[in-house]
Please model this.
Amino acid sequence: AQSVTQLDSQVPVFEEAPVELRCNYSSSVSVYLFWYVQYPNQGLQLLLKYLSGSTLVESINGFEAEFNKSQTSFHLRKPSVHISDTAEYFCAVSAGNQFYFGTGTSLTVIP
Amino acid sequence: NAGVTQTPKFQVLKTGQSMTLQCAQDMNHNSMYWYRQDPGMGLRLIYYSASEGTTDKGEVPNGYNVSRLNKREFSLRLESAAPSQTSVYFCASSENQAARFKKLFFGSGTQLSVL
Model:
C-alpha cells in the first residue's frame, strides 16, 4: 500500500526567506513522486516530479525537491519565497493507475 | 485550449436530493478521475476511469456513481446527497501512460454544500 505524509499543515514564512515543505512516503512498490500546487480557487497544477536519475529536481519558478530513498522523503525547498508563492502544496506518489496525495501544506508568505 | 472543464462551480443541495457533476476534457486523454478535497484530508480518489467504457472504485466510492459517457466526458452522480458529502470536487485527466510519465490535469473544482 502507498501513503504520503506531509508533516506540516501550515507554514508561514516571511517574504525572501527560505522554506522547506516536508513530505514522506511509504510504498511496497516502486513509486514516482510529485509536488502539485493549488493557488486559491483553482485546481491543482504540477510543480515538479521525480522519475529517476538525479535525486534533485527543479521547477521553473525556483522550487526544488530532493528524493532521499533511505529516508523515504521528497522535501520541497525554495531559497527565497515571494508573495506569489502563497498556495497549498500537495505531495503525491503515482503507482499503477492511481495517484495518492498527502493532506497538503498551506504556505503563507508574509510581506 | 480549455483543458478540463467542470460544471457547476457551486451547488447547494438539501439532504436526499440528487445531482450530477459534469466533467469534460479536450486533451484526448484516456484516463479520468474524480477526487474530493476536504480540510485536513487532502485529495481522496472517489472513482477513476482508465479508458472509455471502464470505471473503478477509488478510496471513497460510497454514495457515488460514475459514468464514462465517452472519451471526453466523465460524470459523477450523487443519488441521495448527505451532509458528509459536502466537499470540493475535482475532476482530473491524464494520458494512459506508465506511472512515472503520468501528469494529472485538474479542473477548477465544484464546491458542493449539502444542508
